[in-house]
Here is the input.
Amino acid sequence: MNYILKRSTRARTMRLIVYPDSSVVVTAPRFFGLQSIERFVMKHSEWVNRKVAETSKHNVIRVARKDIAMLKERSLAYARARCANFAAAYGLKFRKISIRAQKSRWGSCSRSGNLSFNYKIAVLPTHTADYIIVHELCHLREMNHSKKFWDLVAQEIPNHRQIRKELRNIAIVYY
Ligand SMILES: [Zn+2]
Here is the structure.
């Protein structure tokens, strides 16, 4: 098994992490012998292999931290253009668009008609970014995830089911 060994002066016990890009990192206290580290890794090899198999299905998108400010601008421009486009198609009106840095949400829609999107939509394949935009826009009319809501989404994004699956398999990794 391939793994990256990190020595830590602060760690008191060994730690094993499988990242979304399938890399395996073992953090060990500074003076732990290689043999006990190997033993520790072997002991957890089944779990590691399972995790690696899971994460290798991911579509990994790498984002440089230094690009985040640029991505925020780009995502705002994209969201403005695409919201205008889809809002016209649906005959919907929205108020303000804002960009947020959220950990796990792609977007949201407030009752007062404001839309917000995660800046990470700027690194997504455009068909997935468009789905997110349509999803939030449709909440302007249907503030729920009812059948009516999904029918509305399907008017512009007929394959939304498949796109949602794609989206779940996207892992964003920072460097
Ligand atoms: Zn929703």
User: Anything to note?
Assistant: The mean pLDDT is 94. The beta strands are 4-8, 15-18, 24-29, 59-63, 97-100, 107-109, 115-118, 170-174.
